Amino acid sequence: MSEAVEAAEFAFELGWKLRGLETALAPRGVCGPEAGDPKPPPPPGRQRFTLVHCPVEGYPGFDDPRYEGLRARPPQGCAVEDFGGCLGLRCERPGGRLLDAVAELCAEIRTRYGLLMTGLGIDKLWEWSADGTDGWGAEIVGQLLLMAAERGPKLGYGVDDLTGFLKEAAGAGSPGR
Prior knowledge:
The chain has 177 residues and is α+β, with helices and mostly antiparallel strands. 42% of the residues lie in helices and 15% in strands. The protein has a three-stranded antiparallel β-sheet. A two-stranded antiparallel ribbon has the order 1-2. It starts with a helix and ends in a 7-residue tail after the last helix.
């Protein structure tokens, strides 16, 4: 293994451990990006997530006129927030799995307000957790898929191209999949 790869792995491991230490040493009631006591998990059949409109070409600002309708009438189960100049929604919505709930809400927002939501507010896409279809790992996958949905068409790729890519790259239809 090369020194560069070993250094990168060491840096990741160190960062992960420091993140755990920071969490353990944080004042009581501070949990992740939100202050306050951790919320209990949502009831079965419901998903809790943050959805953000932060387009690749730049932050339009929370007061952008495109957001007027969404700010005035957010989707059921969502509260509008300013995420550093990006419009965000903190949501608890029905859905068997996280990606199901996110996709349904994105379709609703696209239809009602004409906005393609671009992410789940995940900044550290290189982090990973194999914690199931409703956990941190699922949020990272959702973030990457929303980014692809926004950026792919800017390069000339359509939805069929993107789904075809996933099917081919992941080996859909291959034995063992």
